[in-house]
Design brief:
The chain is mostly helical. It is about 70% helix and about 0% strand.
């Protein structure tokens, strides 16, 4: 049940944050392997990007990749929040005073994120490719033109097999382990601190709301560089053997970005990334708390 609760919380949050994910993906691909000033800038900032996408692709384009995005949330958050909650249930995250153990929380947050990243990697792959596809006038990155999620999964499998579907999974595991650990730990410790000091107790879920915002800031800062790399790796074209046409792996991608675009390119799209992470983290972690409370309220009935 802990795994289902985590997955449902992710789905609820994913629906509302998806438009910012589309904007983030486009901005991270803009100017790929080109020096600043040497490429067209179709997406100047968040409002301009939204306007441009709606103008050329239609308002529905803001929900591109929604199907794999929601399945990704169900799988990834079901796994990572489920594992983390199980660790908490077995007493592995708290000391004798019921305070969170920082090192243990980081460890299980990282491991749970890594497991979730591996399971959800194929969905993130097709989600990225669906989100990047646009009208020719504002196209950035490789254009895959998949008509939908199932076609993208089928096409990738036929061309490169299971290895093709899990292309870049190792990077996704690293990305998610970093993001998961930073988000869950900062959330848990901030919420615990507010509860222990009787702060912001006007509403049961106010501490969760505030703590999740802090978690979103920490996660955005730590996650964005790996997120840029994974967007590039997932969206690049591949040859018949499944080898990337632009990047051979994580290190090669990082070096090429640094050489051609500069270090600041690792924070491309940090604005929409935060505006995606903030509501997503708030909704995800508050939904998680609410669903856990709902589960507890029904437990006596099942005994």
């Amino acid at each position: 049940m802990d795994f289902l609760i985590g997955g449902l919380a992710g789905v609820g949050a994913g629906f509302f944050s998806n438009p910012f994910d589309v904007v983030k993906t486009r901005m991270q691909l803009q100017g790929e392997l080109q020096a600043k000033g040497q490429h067209a800038v179709y997406y100047k900032n968040i409002p301009h990007a939204i306007y441009t996408i709606v103008k050329h692709d239609g308002i529905s384009a803001l929900q591109k990749g929604l199907a794999p995005a929601l399945w990704f949330q169900l799988v990834v958050n079901g796994v990572r929040l489920g594992i983390y909650q199980q660790a908490d249930n077995y007493g592995l995250l708290r000391d004798e005073k019921n305070n969170t153990k920082f090192v243990n929380s980081v460890f299980f947050g990282s491991v749970s994120g890594m497991c979730g990243g591996f399971m959800g990697s194929p969905l993130q792959l097709v989600k990225t490719q669906l989100m990047s596809h646009s009208a020719k006038q504002i196209a950035v990155g490789t254009q895959h033109a998949h008509p939908g999620m199932l076609n993208a999964l089928s096409k990738t499998y036929r061309k490169n097999g299971l290895v093709g579907l899990w292309r870049g999974a190792h990077g996704m595991m690293l990305r998610n382990s970093t993001g998961s650990a930073s988000q869950i730990v900062s959330y848990a410790m901030c919420k615990e601190w507010m509860d222990n000091n009787n702060m912001f107790q006007q509403s049961k879920y106010l501490p969760a709301f505030l703590a999740s915002n802090i978690g979103a800031i920490v996660k955005t800062i730590t996650l964005t560089p790996m997120d840029v790399i994974m967007t590039r790796l997932y969206n690049q074209g591949v040859d018949a053997q499944g080898r990337g046409l632009l990047y051979s792996g994580l290190a090669d991608c990082a070096m090429k970005i640094t050489k051609t675009e500069g270090v600041l390119a690792f924070y491309k799209g940090i604005g929409p990334s935060y505006f995606r992470q903030a509501p997503h983290s708030v909704l995800l972690l508050v939904f998680w708390d609410m669903l856990k409370d709902l589960q507890k309220s029904y437990q006596p009935l099942s005994v």
